[in-house]
Amino acid sequence: MAKTTVELPEVLHRKLRVKAALENCSMNDIVIDALRSYLQSFRLEPSMLEVETVPRARGSQQTKEVKS
To answer: Is residue 17 part of a domain?
Structure first.
């Protein structure tokens, strides 16, 4: 499993913590479920497997193609 760091607004983080406590599950489980739901209709094409994300200013991201 890959690891990532996400910066959340305080209110969203608090809601996540409370929801996890009320449902007796981890915040990680909720985030994974939410991302699966959000990305459900997104399909990776074979050419997308060669795309690597790279950091960009101010926390946004851009992509670049990896040459084999």
So the answer is: yes
